[in-house]
Write a structure and sequence with these properties.
Radius of gyration of chain B: 13 Å
Strand content of chain B: over 45%
Number of helices of chain A: 0
Helix content of chain B: under 10%
Strand content of chain A: over 45%
Number of strands of chain B: 11
Structural class of chain B: mainly beta
Oligomer: heterodimer
Largest sheet of chain A: 7 strands, mixed
Structural class of chain A: mainly beta
Number of helices of chain B: 0
Shape of chain B: globular
Radius of gyration of chain A: 13 Å
Number of strands of chain A: 11
Order of helices and strands of chain B: EEEEEEEEEEE
Largest sheet of chain B: 6 strands, mixed
Chain lengths: ~110, ~110
Amino acid sequence: IAGITQAPTSQILAAGRRMTLRCTQDMRHNAMYWYRQDLGLGLRLIHYSNTAGTTGKGEVPDGYSVSRANTDDFPLTLASAVPSQTSVYFCASSDSRGADEQFFGPGTRLTVL
Amino acid sequence: GQNIDQPTEMTATEGAIVQINCTYQTSGFNGLFWYQQHAGEAPTFLSYNVLDGLEEKGRFSSFLSRSKGYSYLLLKELQMKDSASYLCAVVSNDYKLSFGAGTTVTVRA
């Protein structure tokens, strides 16, 4: 079944640790995105990629990095996790950046203690 | 910056109609999306408006007025499975998607 997957489903992490959230899509979409969702704040864009080999900063990029080595994968790395990064993280993809419908992965619930 | 406002919560009875309003002030405009998100799940696409007017899709309709910075999502013949959060999102000039905080709709029997 075509779609977008994320791993892990959930994670509890000690502050200061490094963590990579994985995201893979098999729809051959050009654009991919990482959002965090916090109660009362809605979804906020962390980083995006228009196409393989390019990345850009979203609304809340500090403390996060991404890479886009190929079309399918878009990992999000927290170099040194802090408690304020406790959130639900969603990866999404769309055929192109812009006004195309975004398809969302199931999310990763991350708790930083 | 982007400013997207929608009510926090709404409650309605099964079979009724509910209208969720969304107002926005953004850096340019390239369309407005509505997404549905059930608790603990990913958002899923409902509608996209880029021109003024009403788009109807089954029990759901979405309206846009660009001059007023306003949209609404209309849910008709409410069913229990419609209990969810509804997210308004605007595509700005740089083609980034900005989301409102979402409206939680509770459908009561």
